[in-house]
Amino acid sequence: MKIATFNVNSIKARLELVKRWLTEKNPIDVLCLQEIKCTDENFPYEDFSELGYECAVFGQKAYNGVAICSKLGFEEVHKGFGDPMWDEQKRFIRARIQGIEVCNVYAPHGDTDGERHIYKLNFFKNLATYITKSFDLSQDSVVVLGDMNVARDDIDVWDAELLRGTIGFMDDEREAFEEFLSIGLIDLFRACHPEKKQFTWWDYKGGAVWKDLGMRIDYILGSEPIKERCEEIVVDMWTRKRRSPTPSDHAPVVLTLR
Question: Tell me, what CATH number does 143's domain have?
Answer without folding.
Answer: 3.60.10.10
